[in-house]
Amino acid sequence: IYPGQQLIIPGGELPQPTPTFTLPFQPPTPAFTPIATKPPTPTPIPSPVVSKEGVYIETVISPGVEGKEAIVIRSTADKVKNLAGWRLSADGLSYVFPDFLLWPQGAVTLYTGSGRNTPAELYWGLDKPVLHQVREITLYNREGEPVSSYRLSSP
Q1: What is the pTM of this model?
Q2: Are 126 and 87 in contact (CB under 8 A)?
Q3: Cβ atoms 71, 87 nearer than 8 A
């Protein structure tokens, strides 16, 4: 095509496609034979034991990783829990919760390092990660009664 060239577009109807199969139509047979396999057996995941307090240690995040190592504590309670005076014990180390409100069905992440406390994150203030060396973490209410325990794999 060049400038000034005249294009001629033919008019009329377009040709109608003609089917290439005959009736009755038989779809092609697949070239592979499916093999029946047994689905994998799911690995059971233990559900946490929740105390009458409705608060439990849900998980440990990144044990041994500086700046990321943390413990997640979750509430299943229907009311706000004030964790002031509650204590977390991890193989001789101890953290006492400040005046902190844990909302119904909420969670708080307790980082082992330093930082500024927020409504969703607390900071223990330890110099280095320690949870990779811990066997068990226990949460105690302000009366000193064990509320939840979380066992880590052996260090």
Answers
A1: 0.67
A2: no
A3: no
* Exposure class string for 47-61: b at 16+ Cβ within 10 A, else e: eeeebebbbbbbebb
The whole-angstrom distance between residue 145's C-alpha and the CA centroid of its chain comes to: 29
CA distance 128 to 61: 15
pLDDT digits (tens, 9 = 90+) for 64-85: 999 999 999 999 999 999 999 9
Q: How distant, in Å, are the alpha carbons of 38, 51, 59, 78 from that of 122?
A: 46, 22, 15, 22
Q: State how far the Cα of 131 lies from the Cα of 155, in Å rounded to an integer.
A: 9
Task: Please state, in angstroms and rounded to a whole number, the distance separating the CA atoms of residues 151 and 48.
Answer: 11
User: How far apart (Å, rounded) are the C-alpha atoms in residues 134 and 126?
Assistant: 14
Distance CA 101, CA 117 (A): 12
d(CA 78, CA 108): 16
For residues 151 and 60, is the Cβ–Cβ distance under 8 A?
A: no
The DSSP secondary-structure symbol of 50 reads P
> pLDDT tens digits for 5-34?
776 666 666 666 665 655 565 666 666 665
Residues 121/111, Cβ–Cβ less than 8 Å: yes
